[in-house]
Amino acid sequence: MKQVEESYKAFLAECHAKNLQRHLCDVEPVTAAKIRVKGQLFVNFASNDYLGLAHHPAVIEASSQYAKDYGAGSSASRLVTGNSHQFTEIEEKLAALKGAEAALIMASGYQANGAVLEALFDKRILKAAPHVVADRLNHASMHFGCKAAGVRQFRYHHLDAAQCREKLEQAEPGAPKFILTETVFSMDGDVAPIKDLVGMASAYDACLIADDAHGFGVLGKGGRGLAEGADITIGTFSKAMGSFGAYVAGSRGVIDYLIQRCGGLIYSTALPPATLGAISAAIDLLPGLDEARAKVASHAARFRQEMQALGLGTGKSETQIVPLIVGKAEAALALSNSLRDKGFWVTAIRPPTVPEGTSRLRVAFSAAHSDDEVADLIAVIKSAREHIDLEQTEAG
Ligand SMILES: Cc1ncc(COP(=O)(O)O)c(C=O)c1O
């Protein structure tokens, strides 16, 4: 034990020296837009609760009622006795909403990507090693799924459909082909060229898998997300849907296959009733939330415009996620701290979560933010700009 402890300590010292050490911080949620930390109230611009559903009365009510009616836990995996009828009801609603033949609820987005990709890329079932072409900025959980399956990824430059095509063309004859992308990239707020990828998947007989974690609920017609045309969509209920859990949507065959082969479904306890209640209520609310979706979009558009006028880069963001790319980790931390001093919580994102030299503040907008809160955030950044050296990079 002593030997391994020394290695971990050395790693921690290195993180500390590079300003890259991460800390857990106790947070008390107060409303959909506010948190309290160490007794101080902050406007929260770091949350993924884009529609404020985590605090929506109907979602909370359904969650509490399901716990009262069905208990605190599901007691077993879905293949044992954990598969309450609410799973089937939600999966049917979800499949109809996504225009898919079937859907399957999973424990979390991270777990879904890890476990589902591992099962889909199984070369014993596919009878050949799969050729997996992936956007290089895909989420860590997608890399984890590829690693778990033992597949090599052929990575294309971020959003570069032409290079995706080149990488597809490098497949060995007969190799089963996959394209792997997020729809909305979680750290950049930019959007994958889904239509091009759908066309390419069809032309090359590849299976397009899209992670719609940050699209579902908040973007697309009726909040249906941006994965239209993908063969398999993986999404979460933990962001715009306000609670927890994830899903896979696709053909009946793919879902039936996953029920046989997906370890994360088979060997893990089913989601608890309270979570199913929250998911079900949020899905029912989605069609009526156009106004909330428009409000999020307008907050983000206003912020981007103001930052650009200040000469601050917001990358290619076109969604509710707006990166303020400042370059060095120290600059991102200094800006985040100076916003905290003024009552705004915006997280600094540093390597390895984002590439070296592109440290940033990730500003996430919610329908729960007021126009005044957005205006105040802009004003505070304007004033911080005057005393912090914000090295702008090309990425910015
Ligand atoms: C693109 C993407 N996929 C998956 C996940 C993981 O989802 P969850 O938080 O439900 O585990 C995230 C969350 O950060 C994400 O941004």
Describe this structure in words.
- This protein has 396 residues and is of the alpha/beta class.
- It has two domains: 17-51 and 290-387, Aspartate Aminotransferase, domain 1 (Alpha-Beta Complex); 55-287, Type I PLP-dependent aspartate aminotransferase-like (Major domain) (Aspartate Aminotransferase, domain 2, 3-Layer(aba) Sandwich).
- Helices cover 42% and strands 16% of the residues.
- It has helices at 2-17, 57-70, 85-98, 109-120, 123-126, 140-149, 161-169, 194-203, 252-261, 263-266, 273-285, 290-309, 329-341, 371-387; strands spanning 28-29, 34-37, 40-44, 102-106, 131-135, 153-156, 177-182, 206-211, 232-236, 246-250, 321-327, 344-345, 347-349, 359-364.
- The radius of gyration is 21 Å and the shape is globular.
- It starts with a helix and ends in a 9-residue tail after the last helix.
- The mean pLDDT is 95.
- Bound molecules: pyridoxal-5'-phosphate.
- Pyridoxal-5'-phosphate is lined by residues 108-110, 113, 139, 141, 182, 186, 211, 213-214, 236, 238, 246.
Concise structural overview:
This protein has 396 residues and is an alpha/beta fold.
Key traits:
14 helices, 396 residues, Aspartate Aminotransferase, domain 1, alpha/beta
SSE topology sketch:
Blueprint: H1 2-17, E1 28-29, E2 34-37, E3 40-44, H2 57-70, H3 85-98, E4 102-106, H4 109-120, H5 123-126, E5 131-135, H6 140-149, E6 153-156, H7 161-169, E7 177-182, H8 194-203, E8 206-211, E9 232-236, E10 246-250, H9 252-261, H10 263-266, H11 273-285, H12 290-309, E11 321-327, H13 329-341, E12 344-345, E13 347-349, E14 359-364, H14 371-387
Parallel strand pairs: 3-12, 5-6, 5-7, 7-8, 8-9
Antiparallel strand pairs: 1-2, 2-3, 4-10, 9-10, 11-14, 13-14
Helix pairs in contact: 2-11, 3-11, 4-6, 12-14
This protein binds pyridoxal-5'-phosphate.
